Every structure is written in C-alpha cells, then in structure tokens.
From TrEMBL:
Keywords: ATP-binding, Helicase, Hydrolase, Nucleotide-binding, RNA-binding. A motif (Q motif) lies at residues 53-81. Residues 460-470 have a biased composition (Basic and acidic residues). This is RNA helicase. Its EC number is 3.6.4.13. Residues 53-81 form the DEAD-box RNA helicase Q domain.
C-alpha cells in the first residue's frame, strides 16, 4: 500500500500570448526551446505555454516569489521558463539541457509546491527524492534547497563516504526532501531504514551520468519501492540509448523539454580548439597554456587517471603555481577543500578526473583544458559544458594524439553543430579510422546480434510501442 491519493497542484496552465507567432519567437529566442508531448495513447495534450516572468509561474506562491527576489534573479532561464509550467501542471518531464542552465531550480521549486500539497501526517516519510550521481552534486542541490527554503520543509543529503550513522539518525528523525546518491540510498533501503513508499515527487538528475557510473541496478531497485502514480522528472545533458530506455521504463507519458538541440552538441558559448600532439609533448603544451593565462582566468584541466592528476599538479607546484587536484583517491574532506578553494578563487587551476569533477558547480570557469581525451564523446560534451555557463563565454582546448583516432568521426559533428572550425588533420584522422574500421569488418565478419531490452517494469510494466529515438 502506498497511502493516499496524490493531491494536484493549483496552477493556471495557459499563460496568455497574443499570437502563436509570439509564442514561437519566444521559444526560439530562449535558446531554441522545443517541447514534445510523448503521450502514446489517445489525443495529444495541449503543451503549457512558457512563462516569461517568475510571477507568471509563482503568482499563487508568495513565499517562493519572496525567495526569488531575495536572491536577485531577474528572469527565468530558458529551461525554467518551459519546465515550470509543465511540472506545475502535474506532468512528468524529461529535461535535456547542459549543466549551468538553471535546471536544478527548474525541478526544485515545483517540487516544493508539490510536497506542500500533500498531507504530511498521512505520508509517513519523505515526499520528494532527488537521485544524483555524486556527493558533490548532492551537496550543491541540498544547498539550493536551503537557500530557497519553503515553509520550513527539512532536506538532507545521503551519500557514500559521509557519516552513515549521522545520516541514519537524520532520516529517522523525519525529513521531507532527500537528495541522495544511488549507492548509499540503496544501502538504507535494503536495511529498511528509509521509507521510499512515501515519495510522490521523484527526480533523476543527470541521468546520463548515473548510467555512465554504473548505477542503473541500484536505480531500478530503488524505483521498485516508489509508488507508480508519482510525478517524475528526469534531467540529462545528452540523450543516449541508455537514458531513453530509462525514460521509457519509468516515466509516464512525459513531456520533453530540450534547450538548443536534442542531438549531442556542446554549448555554443564555448570556443573549442583541437591541437594535435605527441604524448610526450602534452606537458609542454599545458605549461605554455598556463603561462598565457590572464590573472582573472580560471582553468579546469581534465586528465584520464588519478596518478596523472597527482603527477601534473605536483609538477605545477614545483614551478611555483598555485594548484589543486581532485580525484576519487582523495579523502572526502580533501576533495571538499579543493572544490571550495577553486570555487572561491583561492586556486585558479584545478586538475581533475572525470568522475571526481562530476557535480562540480563553478560558474566562472573561463577555460577547459582536455589534457587527456575523454573515454567517450558524451564525456567530451560534459567537460566542455563546464565553461561558457550562465550567459558567459568560454574556451575549451583539447589535446589529441594518434591513439585518440577512433573519436575523430564523433568529434567532427560536435564541432560543426557548434559552429567551430574543424581542423583538416581531424578530418584526415576520421577518414583513416573509418577506412580501418571497414577493413576490419571485411576480414572479421560477425553475425547479427539479438535485439535490445524492452519496455521495462517501472510504471505499469508495459512495453512502450513508440520509437523514442527522435
């Protein structure tokens, strides 16, 4: 048993516009917002109009308006302007947007209102759950919850590497909003410490990263305990097959809002430069880059391995540079200190691995330096999206060696869609790789494999017939 019926949100879904042309122009000017109704059966629903001001979204909620005015925001970001009307209408939502676009508030504020509409005495546990890939991101979301504190609702973080006993005590004392990483939450779930059946508003934040980090089994087990008539939000920077499968299985007739393009594309506020080097030349390139930095610049340097993060940062220290490194081998307190130093500007150079940097929320990063090329093209997009945020421009420099040739065919369209120059050497590298791949397939034929997974159990367990490839 899951308890009582979920109470709907009171909201006027149709913000008035003079003409459909005006509405189309607004969506185009707001980073080319596109909305799609993914309902598979029956008539399509009317898509709520985007809000142009905070008042259009939250006129009925003065406490939220007071918090927005206190923080000093002037107008909603593109993802917020369309996500708020959809979520306040009670619909499930898939939001495709890069980091730094305001997506956290896009789901948090409607979540507060949703939780407030439920009867606490009948709930018997938290009403809202945000699942997120890393402890750093969980802590940042919890900080946003505190900043926009609504009607005294209590939020908490649950994450691995933290004080488990302390987290258990807070859960048992009673909380309204839980922000958690899948591993630690699944631990508390299996030990019957937390009641997930009370959750009526669920957020899967940065779903693509959670899948990249191997959290899908834990997510599936967590969702089995959450009532099927919940409202669900999924955010992702990319739309790969794994994320589509997760959405198909666990969201009910969602609306999809995406900002910019649904294709995998790096943000167009970032100038991307690709340099071709030999492995042994990398250090000289990164030191040349740092010597040419301006005093106000802030650079995030990505490396592929923990040992390289330590090695490179040590070399920089020996050169008299103020630098921090960030990777999973560090103690949690050291990671938090490195993040704080970088965020506050005491350190302007941070050397990090991909996993450690996930959830890094620093809006004034001016440069990204890809010392090692990432494992996949999705990770490249995530890295580049760390700069050029919140209306700022940024620069991304990527070192490419001969060993990275398999990524060339995927990198070219990313650069083209973002209006970047494609080096001739990258085109030749892609052609050589494609030729190599064709020859390999010719001499190593393989039979066709079985198909992929079906519709999943999730919300009703039926196979979704519609093609979600878009």
């Amino acid at each position: 048993m899951y308890g009582n019926i979920i109470h709907p949100i009171l909201y006027d879904t149709q913000i008035q516009y003079t003409t459909h042309t005006t509405l189309g122009v607004l969506r185009k000017e707001n980073n080319n917002i596109f909305v799609d109704d993914l309902k598979e059966e029956g008539e399509k629903r009317s898509i709520p109009n985007p809000c142009r001001t905070f008042l259009e979204a939250f006129e009925l909620y003065p406490e939220i308006m007071d918090n927005i005015h206190r923080v000093g925001f002037t107008k909603p970001t593109p993802i917020q302007s369309q996500a708020w009307p959809v979520l306040l209408s009670g619909e499930d939502l898939i939001g495709i947007a890069q980091t730094g676009t305001g997506k956290t508030l896009a789901y948090l504020l409607p979540g507060f209102i949703h939780v407030d509409g439920q009867i606490v005495a009948e709930r018997g546990g938290p009403g809202m759950l945000v699942l997120t890939p890393t402890r750093e991101l969980a802590l940042q979301i919890e900080a946003e919850c505190s900043k926009y504190s609504y009607k005294g609702y209590k939020s908490m973080c649950i994450y691995g590497g933290g004080d488990r006993r302390g987290q258990v005590n807070v859960v048992k004392s009673g909380v309204d909003i839980v922000i958690a990483t899948p591993g630690r939450l699944h631990d508390l779930q299996m030990n019957e410490i937390i009641n997930l059946r009370s959750i009526t508003y669920l957020v899967l934040d940065e779903a693509d990263r959670m899948l990249d980090m191997g959290f899908e089994p834990q997510i599936m087990k967590i969702l089995l305990d959450i009532r099927p008539d919940r409202q669900t939000v999924m955010t992702s920077a990319t739309w790969p097959p794994g994320v589509r499968r997760l959405a198909r299985s666990y969201l009910k007739d969602p609306m999809m809002v995406y900002v910019g393009t649904l294709d995998l594309a790096a943000v167009n506020t970032v100038k991307q430069t690709v340099l071709f080097v030999h492995e042994e030349e990398k250090k000289s390139y990164v030191f040349d880059f740092i010597r040419n930095m301006e005093p106000q610049d802030k650079v995030l340097i990505f490396v592929g391995k923990k040992i390289m993060a330590d090695d490179l940062s040590s070399d920089m220290c020996l050169q008299g540079l103020i630098v921090q490194s960030l990777h999973g081998g560090h103690e949690q307190c050291d990671r938090e200190e490195a993040l704080k130093d970088f965020k506050d500007g005491r350190v302007r150079i941070l050397v990090a691995t991909d996993l450690a940097s996930r959830g890094l929320d620093v809006f004034d990063i001016t440069h990204i330096f890809n010392y090692d090329f990432p494992r996949n093209i999705e990770e490249y997009v995530h890295r580049v999206g760390r700069t050029g945020r919140a209306g700022r421009s940024g620069i991304a420099v990527t070192l490419v060696t001969r060993e990275n040739w398999r990524m060339a065919p995927e990198l070219i369209p990313i650069l083209e869609r973002a209006g970047q120059e494609v080096p001739e050497e990258l085109v030749l590298m892609a052609e050589r790789y494609e030729k190599h791949k064709r020859e390999k397939e010719m001499y190593s034929p393989r039979g066709g494999g079985g198909g992929g997974g079906g519709g999943g159990r999730g919300r009703g367990g039926r196979d979704r017939g519609r093609n979600w490839e878009f």
